[in-house]
Write a structure and sequence with these properties.
Blueprint (H helix, E strand, L loop, with lengths): L10 H13 L23 E13 L4 E12 L6 E4 L4 E6 L2 E2 L1 E5 L2 E5 L9 E10 L12 E4 L2 E4 L20 E10 L3 E3 L3 E7 L4 E12 L6 E4 L1 E7 L5 E7 L6 H8 L2 H12 L7 E6 L5 E2 L5 E4 L9 H12 L4 E3 L6 H17 L5 H11 L22 H33 L3 E3 L1 H12 L4 H9 L13 H4 L9 H12 L4
Parallel strand pairs: 1-11, 17-18, 18-20, 21-22
Antiparallel strand pairs: 1-2, 2-8, 3-7, 4-5, 4-8, 6-7, 9-10, 10-15, 11-14, 12-15, 13-14, 16-17, 19-20
């Protein structure tokens, strides 16, 4: 179920279940969690998912969501039963075309295939369900956002259990086909390549999307409602689909002026990070989410980001995540700075590109913004804790860490790292330890002290990153032209912490 709701199992308990599943000779139940340090019972053990086919019907008037999800997976052990993470009411489950027994409790869908699933075998699971997602809350909140004209299935680190059964952890990525039927006149936006619409005989229209690259479950999304959809072609030939809620009001113009520049931002970041890792581009602007999220191929932005005019910095941040966070995803949620620090640094690179402040100027300003006694310096980006996963320090001190690394290893090695790291880890997962080892090997430098200082030591580091002698210049450091917009973006990005 929800990652947060699964904190009841300790890490040791989850680890023992994983050990049992991996060493026993007889078939065993799959573990109810992967063993994430922050959310030990998130995801499930015993299988890897290759593909989700999500075929749904949604009625905005009643918030009823119904349909089937077909899961193609391969077992990693002899399985007597297995879990899926899901909140909604299930009416039937089939495993390899045979009716399976199942139970639901606390957001876990426990499936008994009525026989052993042998290790290394391909498994097809079909789950049929119907329910009202907005009626489900976990720890006092619901990730499913009902709107005046539809709904938004968008959140981090947890959204999948509100709309499709899954192995809900970033370490089990899969490809997706997503199709949703809605009353004709309502629009649906999702990830990947748009496959068009099909009229149904009941007066409804089915919208179809396909994601060709593996995707973490929390990055899959749907936005349903009244949207203006714009389609075009990026300079690299990829399809671009942007969508703008008809409820944007006065923010509409600024949202369009920002998001329509996504291919331009992407083209620039390709020069920094290497080839764009996915098959499509775009963005969605809508009220009602309170944050921006890097949904794979098609980021989603709350209208508030455009309240003071165009904002290409939030676009640079979310597009930066397509490399850092989406293509290369966290190994565990404690590694979140690898997502947010580099996406924030993408804003600083974009600022320099458009002539509104260099990366060094932004670094100097952020370093000087927080006094030494600020609580900001007590949050450790390298292990912020589940409660501080989206704290501003994960973003800003994370970006300072990146700039400190640049200063330590020099621009030649640094910009090689920005391209070689996402290439080496493409479509996979990575930990902080792996990143440090990679940076040390590429640069030929020992970097433990640098990362210990910036990621794991409370308090303000004595020397500003990349800028020996900052104190002597502090009186003359002025706010970069970009910084108010970037800082405004940061506050809203951090605002989706629950």
């Amino acid at each position: 179920m929800s990652l947060r709701a699964k904190l009841t199992l300790g890490t040791a308990a989850a680890a023992s279940l994983l050990l049992l599943a991996g060493t026993a000779t007889a078939a065993q139940p799959g573990a109810p969690g992967i063993g994430d340090p922050y959310y030990p019972n998130a995801g499930n053990g015993g299988y890897d998912v290759a593909h989700y086919d999500i075929r749904l019907n949604y009625q905005p008037a009643t918030d009823n969501l119904s349909g089937t999800t077909t899961i193609l997976a391969r077992t990693t052990q002899d399985l007597s039963r297995f879990n899926l993470d899901f909140l909604l009411k299930v009416s039937s489950v089939r495993v390899n075309n045979k009716v399976a027994s199942f139970s639901q409790s606390g957001g876990e869908l426990v499936v008994d295939p009525r026989g052993t699933l042998r290790k290394g075998s391909d498994v097809t699971v079909v789950v049929t369900y119907s329910d009202v997602p907005s009626t489900y809350a976990v720890d006092g909140y619901t990730s499913w956002k009902r709107t005046p004209d539809g709904a938004l299935a968008i959140d981090q680190p947890d959204i999948a259990p509100w709309w499709f059964p899954s192995n809900n952890h970033p370490t089990d990525k899969a490809k997706f086909d997503i199709s949703v039927a809605v009353p004709t006149g309502v629009e649906v936006i999702s990830n990947g390549t748009f496959g068009g619409t099909a009229q149904q005989i009941n007066g409804w229209t089915r919208w179809r999307y396909r994601s060709l690259q593996p995707m973490a479950t929390y990055l899959a999304f749907i936005a349903i409602g009244q949207f203006e959809i714009r389609q075009s072609t990026a300079p690299n030939g990829q399809p671009v689909l942007n969508a703008y809620s008809e409820r944007l009001g006065a923010d509409y113009g600024a949202a369009v002026a920002s998001i329509e520049r996504t291919p331009e931002v992407t083209e620039f970041l390709e020069s920094q990070f290497g080839p764009y890792p996915f098959e499509a581009q775009g963005g969605v602007a809508t009220p009602g989410i309170g944050f921006a999220l890097e949904n794979q191929t098609r980021s989603t932005y709350d209208a508030a980001f455009f309240r003071r005019g165009s904002n290409t910095y939030v676009v640079a941040h979310e597009v930066g995540h397509q490399w850092f966070g989406d293509s290369v995803s966290v190994q565990g949620w404690q590694d979140i700075w690898l997502n947010e620090g580099f996406a924030s640094y993408a804003e600083w690179l974009w600022s320099e590109h458009v002539g509104e402040g260099t990366a060094q100027e932004n670094s100097d300003y952020v370093y000087g913004l927080y006094p030494a006694d600020s609580p900001f310096w007590q949050v450790l980006p390298g292990n912020p804790g589940a409660a501080n996963q989206f704290h501003g320090a994960v973003y800003d001190r994370g970006a300072l860490t990146v700039h400190a690394l640049r200063g330590e290893i020099g621009d030649e090695a640094f910009f090689r790292l920005l391209q070689e790291w996402p290439a080496a880890k493409r479509n996979g997962n990575a930990s902080t330890d792996e990143f440090i080892a990679f940076a040390e090997k590429l640069s030929g430098k020992q970097l433990d002290e640098l990362f210990q200082t910036w990621l794991f030591t409370p308090g303000k580091p004595a020397v500003a990153p990349g800028a020996a002698g900052f104190a002597a210049r502090a009186a003359t450091v002025s706010e970069p032209k970009s910084f108010k917009k970037i800082h405004e973006t940061r506050e809203l990005l951090a605002g989706h912490q629950h």
